[in-house]
Specification:
Length: about 450
């Protein structure tokens, strides 16, 4: 596909969104040409295996995605960022560098997959604080997103999601399942829980959330479902009542500055100092001045401050995130200086969080298990999915099907409203539409076999 507009249109029609982060509609990333395209294969959260498994097993589909991007976007360079510790994957992909891209091995630290950090690591360019990679001529796409781009140019919409199921399950695995599949079904496909005290996290242990809804389903951004012990500190922190968060953060914080010293965005040069946000919060936002609170707008809530740096057990991430929400609700927005990018601190490289140390600090070493791409099937004959009409990023889709209607996997069930930001939704299985409301299209049909990967 040699035309950038045609590539963007194919991606839009297929409903491709960022599969490894906030779910930004991918067709908008191809609205203009980029000087450099960076494929994000860092996968820096503990226990996650999706990108590793795709890079190891789905070579042809990923190469098709690279070819489509290279031909249509014509960037000056395409880089694949993947951690050097995955030696077999690095060696495998270096054999294909003649296809118009280069492999960039990355050090093993957290969060190597943060877009701003990845862009600097791979290209040497620094994205403005509060800005996005296109501000410096770079487009970043996740490995699974790239796979979906390759499928989109062949007319195949996003109907499935690769999810790592790991931790306290009988058979840790990475599964490809239909969008809208109940999370409980993934646990069953992984052989069930191996401990009563297990708590389910959707996403990684640093930025994921506790699954509180028993009817929760797989969305287009669900990266992992992790079963971890309920007694882990990271679980207690996510389940803490806000009154506890506020009280401990106001009274126990020593303003030691460790949260700032290790903050990845601060080290990148952003005007974010979590210890000053904590101090301002403790004094009701009045001391120091509001400039300290405004730094919260640049926080991406990676969790380093709270789950790794803090020695007193307070909640700098949650406090900073709450302050950010309040500032945004009040109409405050990050001030983006596109003329003068941030300058990384000279000691930034010495203060990265080593991945193995992070896993040990979180108490996850016993649960950091291989989770190979598996062809495990849903054990029952039928499957009911709830396809979300609200995309991860943007406006809720307008349903275009009705209860009782027969659909095929890939049929459009939700369309983007005119002149709005969003991504259309597709039926993820063959079957009958059971119900339609403002949130979901419910479909029941024969349980599909996995699309799987390449041997």
């Amino acid at each position: 596909m040699s035309d950038l507009a045609a590539l963007a249109d194919a991606v839009r029609l297929a409903g491709v969104v960022g599969a490894g982060g906030a779910g930004f509609p991918t067709h908008l990333k191809f609205a203009r040409r980029a000087e450099i395209v960076v494929i994000n294969g860092a996968e820096c959260e503990p226990l996650l295996r999706v990108d590793q498994e795709l890079l190891a097993r789905c070579t042809d589909e990923l190469l098709a995605g690279i070819d489509a991007v290279r031909e249509a976007a014509a960037p000056g360079a395409i880089w694949l960022g993947v951690k050097a510790k995955h030696e077999a994957i690095v060696d495998r992909w270096r054999r294909f560098e003649g296809r118009g891209f280069k492999v960039r091995p990355l050090d093993d630290y957290y969060p190597a997959g943060d877009e701003h950090i990845l862009v600097h690591e791979v290209t040497g360019r620094t994205v403005p604080a509060g800005g996005i990679p296109p501000d410096v001529g770079v487009t970043v796409i996740n490995v699974e997103t790239l796979l979906n781009v390759g499928r989109a140019v062949r007319g195949r919409p996003v109907t499935g999601k690769f999810v790592t199921v790991n931790g306290l399950v009988a058979r840790p695995a990475t599964l490809e399942v239909p969008v809208g599949t109940p999370l409980a079904a993934l646990v069953a496909m992984a052989g069930g829980l191996t401990a009563r005290e297990a708590v389910l996290l959707e996403g990684g242990p640093m930025m994921g959330k506790v699954v509180g809804d028993p009817g929760a389903v797989v969305t287009r951004t669900t990266k992992a479902l992790l079963a971890v012990p309920s007694w882990l500190d990271l679980v207690h922190r996510r389940q803490a009542d806000w009154r506890v968060v506020a009280r401990r953060s106001s009274s126990n914080c020593e303003i030691c500055q460790r949260c700032t010293d290790l903050c990845p965005r601060y080290l990148l040069g952003h005007n974010l100092e979590p210890h000053k946000v904590m101090r301002a919060y403790a004094y009701g936002g009045n001391a120091p001045p509001t400039a300290s609170l405004a730094g919260a707008l640049y926080c991406v809530e990676c969790g380093v401050c709270e789950l790794f740096a803090c020695p007193t057990g307070v909640f700098p991430r949650q406090v900073t995130g709450s302050v950010k929400e309040q500032l945004l609700a009040a109409g405050r927005r990050p001030q983006v200086d596109r003329e003068n990018g941030p300058k990384p601190r000279q000691y930034a490289g010495d203060r990265r969080v080593p991945f193995k140390r992070l896993v040990a600090r979180l108490g996850l070493a016993p649960y950091d298990l291989p989770a190979p791409l598996s062809e495990t099937r849903w054990p029952e004959r039928t499957l009911t999915v709830r396809v979300p009409l609200k995309p991860p990023f943007g406006a809720t889709c307008r349903p275009v099907v009705a209860a009782g209607q027969l659909v095929r996997a890939g049929d459009v069930v939700g369309e983007i409203p005119d002149r709005t930001l969003g991504a259309r939704a597709h039926a993820s299985i063959d079957g009958r539409v059971e119900a339609v409301d403002e949130r979901y299209v419910v479909i029941t049909g024969p349980a599909p076999g996995p699309a799987g990967g390449e041997a």
